């Protein structure tokens, strides 16, 4: 559509002159779709939402993305369509939400990351402070180490997925857990749940599941399980997670 292409080029020039920060990342195929919709006087909503999502993925702020679309309408000489701006904002926000969710999950295990566990620890320390108790007296970390060097990608991924499922089986819902680094996992749990047989039970279930799936050779043997006492402050607990991860 030549006229839509001309509109796109005028839009780009206006945006780069007035609001856009980095000329090299302005173009995206959704730009063409939105220019075509505006030129043909069709609903801009679908294209604008797609563009908003693309801007979020590229690291463009919502304000800059909205200002850019306002430049499009200024180029046409028509009033800005509020539906287009709303669609850009919705697409941007949804994309950011999905990225945030993904960032707290390790893709191979489905378990949260150490950053997520650090935030759950923040909640635990805050609750203990409000109730006048000490976290170290009520909670602890159960740490599981199955790490081995020199595993290929497939065996490493399969092992991680197996351990993730096993931790869900043993501890169930309601226990914050995370993968700290490849082969090393931690579960935040109440000290009342830590029995003398917990480490043995967890080790046995992990190793049994690995044998069933043909992954015994991908696990550290014997599997290491230990109880880590929590320090006095949240900052120290975050440092502890970092130390364990190294």
UniProtKB/TrEMBL annotation:
Under which name does UniProt file this protein? GGDEF domain-containing protein
Task: List the source organism.
Answer: Xylanimonas ulmi
